[in-house]
Amino acid sequence: MHPPKRVSVSFIVDQDPVFAYTGWYLIHSLLKHTPLKPTDIHVQCPAEVAERTIARFAALGCQTHRLARFGDGRYCNKLAQWENLHRLGLDHVVFLDTDMICVADFTHFLSADMIGGKVVDLANPPLPLLDALFMRAGFADRPELVGVEASADRTYRGNCNGGLYSVPTRFADALFAAWRRRAEQLLADIEPLRAVGKENHVDQIAFCMALHETGLPFVELPSNVNYYMHFPGPHAQFDGARPLALIHYHNNSLNVLGALEAAGAVEAHEQAAVAEANRLIRDRFDSQLFRDFRC
Q: Where does residue 97 fall: left (phi above 0), alpha (psi -120 to 50 degrees), or beta otherwise?
């Protein structure tokens, strides 16, 4: 497995000011710790996001796009990002959530030849329900079983945490076509997920289905590139011989001062990663974005 030659990153800054606040530090962390340049970073904003917010990211040199909402108009919006990117001649795109911050170069973990993602933290949804959803979607077979990150539960290979998807663009058209179709199918038959309060996992389940349907090459990435920090627990997929590169902290880990106060930062390497993240937040602090976020 060798890393891609040129990586681009895409993420969504939605209407809630927390997305602009966290996206600001995500960008600065990528510029500090990876070879990415501002023009390699694509900030995608739905119509409701103010022009002044978009202008702040454009002023950093990032490429900005207006995003058409898709599916549930919230969690599934990431499935619309490829529509703004597919004509740009990109080599490899990493789709991130904004509640992530880079503390080391993650690009060396990626494969130029395979779609990549990190298995779900917990069994969301539980395996019996996931199996039932595959059956309702018309699948005759199933992906292989793998362990989830933070418990002894099992799930299907390709059921990945949505914080990071790594996609060589030569696979993107086929992946996104199947991904969008499966998400629409799940949304049209949402009651099994709604009954257990798991509607927010449609995008992840649809990604798993799309991988299985298309047979596109896929590699499970270590949790170094999508390291949950919003609760304490085991990290079965962490490669301790390599650096922790991307923290996935969830917005409830931000304290009243806008810094990370991550409940999952227990071990020394976790505490060191959070300290590095907070140094960057302090050094690149933006008072206007903070006021918007706290209001």
A: beta
The secondary element (H helix, E strand) that includes residue 194 is: helix 191-194
Which residue type is seen at 254? L
Rounded Cα gap, residues 234 and 118, in angstroms: 14
**C-beta of residue 130 within 8 angstroms of C-beta of residue 205:** yes
CA distance readout (Å), 198 to 132, 157, 269, 283: 14, 19, 32, 37
Torsion (CA) 188, 194, 196, 200 in degrees, nearest 10: 90
Strands of the chain, DSSP E: 7-12, 41-46, 63-67, 92-96, 100-102, 115-119, 145-147, 154-156, 160-168, 218-220, 227-228, 246-248
Question: In order of start, what are the domains of the chain with their CATH numbers?
Answer: 7-294 (3.90.550)
Query: pLDDT tens digits, residue range 93-152?
Result: 999 999 999 999 999 999 999 999 999 999 999 999 999 999 999 999 999 999 999 999
Closest by CA to 179, choosing from 83, 50, 285, 67, is: 83
Radius of gyration of the chain from Cα atoms? 18
